[in-house]
TrEMBL record:
Keywords: Differentiation, Endoplasmic reticulum, Lipid metabolism, Membrane, Microsome, NADP, Oxidoreductase, Sexual differentiation, Transmembrane, Transmembrane helix. It is a multi-pass membrane protein. GO terms for cellular component: endoplasmic reticulum membrane. It comes from the Eukaryota. The lineage of its organism: Eukaryota, Metazoa, Chordata, Craniata, Vertebrata. GO terms for biological process: androgen biosynthetic process; cell differentiation; sex differentiation. The keyword Repressor does not apply. The chain crosses the membrane at residues 23-41, 123-143, 158-176. It is found in: Endoplasmic reticulum membrane; Microsome membrane. It comes from Scleropages formosus (Asian bonytongue). This is 3-oxo-5alpha-steroid 4-dehydrogenase (NADP(+)). Belongs to the steroid 5-alpha reductase family. InterPro entries: 3-oxo-5-alpha-steroid_4-DH, 3-oxo-5_a-steroid_4-DH_C, SRD5A/TECR.
Length: 259
């Protein structure tokens, strides 16, 4: 890891042959560069799912619930399997943080995915999301279980509690915003409506904002480069989508609907 991340009071490099700090560092930089690449790309064009799918392109589509369940599941399942098959018991600190990560994806996989009634998702988008979530789930789990070590004093560290508060605040914003979005349309309706209430009164993509806040809170709580790289990737990948939503809504009154 780079020096700035090694000099953390409550985290020490584990003298364990199972931990490859050089791999962790390169993967972290890779996530950040990938995120910046998404940011540049999405300034020019929208990612083709949801309202931005062009039906004339003839893409293979997957039902929204199936797509969301399949693509979110690896981020929950892979860390759980790593934790279950770990050769040694994990400290409370590492287990707590990994369970915090898994909590988000439990909600996204088993609750959000079953409640969503959006438009079908392109198969290629679903597959790319499955690959990314599998890699990220392994990366975050590997780092916490094989590399990170938190001293007992870490449980009294302000960074842990500030990070967890920010994480759960972001999660609450994300879940509440998703609930508002689900209530916009009755079963069978496919037209788009401008959401009102909650943080939608202040930002066009309150659901995206909540998720970005979540992962920066998680990065603070773990105080690790892998978590920060994922938070940055999240901001760069879904932040532009919120911007495109804002441009999509701006010319129209709050009562506007569109097919």
């Amino acid at each position: 890891m780079i020096a700035g991340w090694q000099a953390i009071p409550h985290e020490a490099k584990r003298e364990n042959m199972q931990c490859r700090q050089d791999v962790v560092q390169w993967c972290s930089w890779g996530f950040m560069l990938l995120g910046l690449g998404f940011l540049v790309r999405q300034k020019k064009t929208e990612t083709p799912y949801g309202r931005y799918v062009d039906p004339s392109e003839g893409r293979r589509m997957v039902p929204a619930r199936v797509a969301w369940f399949a693509q979110e599941l690896p981020s929950f399942l892979v860390p759980v399997l790593l934790l279950a098959t770990a050769e040694e018991s994990s400290s409370m600190g590492r287990a707590l943080l990994l369970c915090t990560f898994c909590l988000h994806y439990f909600q996204r996989t088993f609750i959000y995915a079953l409640l969503i009634h959006g438009r079908p998702c392109p198969l290629c988008i679903m597959i790319s999301a499955i690959v990314f979530c599998s890699c990220n789930g392994f990366f975050q789990g590997y780092y916490l279980l094989r590399c990170a070590e938190y001293e007992h004093s870490w449980l009294r560290d302000a960074r842990l509690w500030i990070g967890l508060i920010v994480f759960y605040a972001g999660m609450a914003i994300n879940i509440h915003s998703d609930q508002i979005l689900r209530k916009l349309r009755k079963p069978g309706e496919t037209d788009y409506r401008i959401p009102r209430g909650g943080l939608f009164e202040y930002v066009s993509g309150a659901n995206f904002f909540g998720e970005i806040v979540e992962w920066f809170g998680y990065a603070i709580a773990t105080w690790s480069m892998p978590a920060f790289s994922f938070a940055l990737f999240t901001m760069c990948s879904i932040g532009p989508r919120a911007y495109h939503h804002h441009r999509y809504h701006t010319p129209y009154p709050s009562s506007w609907t569109s097919r």
